[in-house]
Amino acid sequence: GQSLEQPSEVTAVEGAIVQINCTYQTSGFYGLSWYQQHDGGAPTFLSYNALDGLEETGRFSSFLSRSDSYGYLLLQELQMKDSASYFCATNFNKFYFGSGTKLNVKP
Amino acid sequence: EAGVAQSPRYKIIEKRQSVAFWCNPISGHATLYWYQQILGQGPKLLIQFQNNGVVDDSQLPKDRFSAERLKGVDSTLKIQPAKLEDSAVYLCASSRIGGARQETQYFGPGTRLLVL
């Protein structure tokens, strides 16, 4: 089976850096994706890691350690508009999503 | 390019009634997904189509849910009869290939279903 664990909620201030962790247990694994979802909106793709290491896309970075079954999403220079839920998802022929981390950015 | 289209955006029905949702994926995308997202949870895959064939429907409650993707383009998801626990957002997504190691899914705005 598949399971993904994320913290349910994280709070940070504008301009800060925040890290959202994801640990997974899967019977197969191609890679780890991250999606952002604003309240009432659709999930949108942020990042994907297939290999160990860091992937950087602007203010967002994502990290994967396959040996530890662990990854994280790093958000830098937080802005109010980053307040949303963030989901990690594994892909092995089909997608499994974590339960999501609600990020609250405060002024 | 146009995104994934879904309708209706909202639906309120009483339990035991039936309901249908429609999805039109991004043009040229071979793979279409239906997800159920209950408030406060992550999306749960219900069914995945590759063109007009079913790739995975292991989490689809087949006694009440059905889905089809005729001609490999748009798709409908039906619930009959609905239960209170079916209240959720139903998300449709599409991707170019499906089953690939790196595959970005593009989600539609979803249909919010409330069963009373």
Please give a quick description of this structure.
The complex is a heterodimer of chains A (107) and B (116). Helix content of chain A is 0%, strand content 59%.
Structure description:
The complex is a heterodimer of chains A (107) and B (116). Chain A has 107 residues and is mostly beta strands. Chain A contains no helices and 11 strands. In chain A, strand 4 and strand 5 form a beta hairpin. Chain A starts with a strand and ends with a strand. Chain B is mostly beta strands. In chain B, strands 2, 4, 5, 6, 9, 10 and 11 form a 7-stranded mixed β-sheet that branches. Chain B is globular, with a radius of gyration of 13 Å. The interface between A and B is medium-sized, with 22 and 24 residues.
**Proportion of strand residues of chain B:** over 45%
What shape does the CA trace of chain A take?
A: globular
Largest sheet of chain B: 7 strands, mixed
Query: Uncertain runs of chain A with pLDDT below 50, 5 residues or more?
Result: none
Helix content of chain B: under 10%
Helical stretch count of chain B? 0
Give the termini separation of chain A.
41 Å
Radius of gyration of chain A: 13 Å
Shape of chain B: globular
Structural class of chain A: mainly beta
Assembly type of the chains comes to: heterodimer
